[in-house]
Amino acid sequence: MSARRHISAASTLVTAVLGVGAVVANKPYLLVRAQFDRQRVLAGLDEAIVTVGDHQVAYAFSDDAPFGAPTLVMVHGFTGSKENWYPVAARLRGQYRLLVLDLPGWGESERKPGADYGFVAQAERIAAFIDEFARQQGRRQGEIVLLGHSMGGGIAALTAARHPQLVDRVALLNAAGVRFSENQFGLDVLAGRNPFSVEDRDSLRRYIDTVFHREAAKPWIPWPASRGLIAYRRDAAIFEQSVLDSIGRGPDSFAPGEAAADIQQPVLLLAGRQDSVIDASAVDLYAARMPQATKVLLDDCGHMSLVEQPAAVTAAVNQLIERGQGR
Question: Is residue 33 domain-resident?
């Protein structure tokens, strides 16, 4: 290669690097999205978008499962996204068909100004999502197992209670929707504050420390990805507050717990003993209305059981599916 071609190639490389650097500098949240895509690929999941009612819903999925295997639908919690489920999904892939969605309004799914994103409205959207999946398949192959975490647990409870023909089994993990024993998080919500709000590095650290118990499980978010995440959360502050006002102190805030008495399907209730968000007392409150439920309390585990104890969560989900199947 001539010196001129060497210079040209080097110039092209420098230009490309500078171009990428400029994009990252202007939109550092792209680094967060890149990490999410990496996690999805490592978990063996593909991605797609489907129309559910009047929303575009993004989801990750895996069809790598035996014919007739159950389909697991995974629903994340408040301020969360489908990526929260990837540590569990990676362990379940190959046994079951997986559908891991961003709730409407969250993650990469569509958000509409003025739309209702409370428990009841989202439960109807999850039912529509499951129904759309069944329609696309032509006929159902295996059971539908609905898994919900935190806010997603409350949504899953309502969906299972109101649409029993769509849900065969349900798992409520660190589930919201009942009046659990008083803690600081609950007091802040009732006072109209968002304990999960993020405006700067200190509040980002406070948020992580609140939802995680185990130090080793807490994510490391280097600069400039942290700057992108902080800006993303700051931009979502009004939306987050509106949702929290609905699910935390609105008229339907305890609708999931009230509907739980109508759930006849097999149920898993799971919580972390050190959960400082949804106190573990929520498990007994739900169980009082669902005598068929199996309770699992995880030691050394906070609110993010999906990330802190993914192996234990996976084992509990497997046991839920095996109950009554003669395995």
Answer: yes
